[in-house]
UniProtKB/TrEMBL annotation:
The entry's keywords: Hydrolase, Metal-binding, Zinc
Residues spanning the membrane: none
Record-annotated Adenosine deaminase domain positions: 14-332
UniProt similarity note: Belongs to the metallo-dependent hydrolases superfamily. Adenosine and AMP deaminases family.
Name of the protein in question: Adenosine deaminase
Length: 370
């Protein structure tokens, strides 16, 4: 029987990434091509400063938010967004991803919302045919802009609805712009049936930002949310409620806080969140900017954070149940993906970090025994 290494096993798993910034998936060569197209002076060394894979110790380092800001200013035509989304789908396909919910920031785009959204929708249909990958859209508030800009974004969504547009989010630097500043936009979106999510407590900021997102704004899930573990009472409450937290193993803030790998892997709040019973879902955030991909995120959960291989099945399914797909689609994929996991698990040549009791229970489940 064919055996699989852990990386190959993970790559072949069907996966969903429900926290993915569209322009965080821009390849380096694409950024350079776009700069040439618009005659923007962008030396390769400067372009590389946006990408973790090319950054050197002590060298220039701009990071993901700076990359998004630069790219939104750079990209001037719908064809640019079509190219980026197609390449995102291509990369995700090679990592075994079957479903993506991707953020983009309409208030940062040079063209009207409807033009970009129509271009993205066309590309989604094309990618479905070419890569058998499903992509859906989450217009996202740039919290560094005004609450009125956020309301205008939602009004554009309402004026130009499309079934591929599932809800709204909020991102960029949170320090001076907590989610409650944008309550009007969220309330308007909710009244028109859109789902809600929010980046909260991403950069070590206070757990109150998570509490506000859930209790006041009424979000369906939290993006990041790491500081919630500093409030055990709320952590227990949200664990019991099953609130989804899309967590990012490659989060820049914690890599900078604990640059030593052994310290990072032990102290990263993802571990504590899982131990507290929170519903955590590994996601990529900014794929190329963070030098990661969906399979790598899952692998980090096992090899760095100490989760057993079987727990990946739970995370895989939780990513579906936390998604904004129709319930019948979720149930269908959950059954198919579970079966795929079990078949691949049987071929895995890896010592899973399961206790003997847990392994016996899993094998009984896999074999259909009581």
């Amino acid at each position: 029987m064919t055996t699989l290494t852990l990386p190959e096993f993970i790559r072949r798993l069907p996966k969903a990434d429900i926290h993915y910034h569209l322009l965080g998936g821009v390849r380096l060569n694409t950024m350079l091509d776009l700069a040439r197209k618009y005659q923007v002076d962008l030396p390769e060394a400067e372009a590389k400063s946006y990408y973790r894979a090319y950054q050197t110790p002590g060298g220039p380092r701009k990071g993901g938010i700076a990359a998004l800001t630069f790219l939104y200013q750079l990209m001037q035509e719908t064809a640019d967004y079509e190219r980026v989304l197609f390449e995102v789908a291509e990369d995700a396909h090679h990592s075994g991803v079957k479903y993506i919910e991707t953020f983009w920031n309409p208030s940062d785009v040079a063209l009207p919302y409807a033009e970009i959204n129509d271009a993205l929708v066309r590309t989604i249909d094309h990618c479905q045919q070419v890569f058998d990958i499903t992509i859906r859209l989450i217009p996202s508030i740039n919290r560094e802009k005004s609450p009125e800009d956020a309301v205008a974004m939602v009004e554009a969504m309402i004026a130009h609805p499309h079934p591929y547009v599932l809800g709204i989010g909020i991102d960029y630097k949170e320090h001076q712009a907590p989610v409650e500043n944008f309550w009007k936009a969220y309330r308007l979106a909710a009244r028109h049936g859109y789902k809600l999510t929010a980046h909260c407590s991403e950069f070590g900021l206070h757990w109150r930002n998570v509490e506000t997102g859930i209790e006041l704004i009424g979000v369906d899930r939290i993006d990041h949310g790491y500081s919630i573990i500093n409030n055990p009472e709320l952590t227990a409450k949200y664990a019991a409620l099953g609130i989804p937290f899309t967590v990012v193993p490659s989060n820049t803030y914690f890599l900078q806080q604990w640059p030593k790998h052994d310290e990072w892997r032990v102290k990263h709040p993802i571990r504590a969140m899982a131990e507290a019973g929170l519903n955590i879902i590994p996601c990529t955030d900014d794929w190329h900017m963070h030098d990661t991909h969906t399979s790598k995120c899952y692998q980090v959960m096992v090899e760095d954070f100490g989760f057993d291989v079987y727990s990946l099945k739970t995370m895989m399914l939780n990513s579906l149940y936390a998604s904004w797909l129709p319930q019948n689609q979720i149930e269908q994929w959950a059954e198919e993906w579970s079966r795929c996991f079990d078949e691949l698990f049987a071929q895995l040549d890896y010592q899973p970090k399961l206790s003997t009791k847990e392994l016996i229970l899993y094998r009984r489940e896999h074999n259909g025994k009581k």
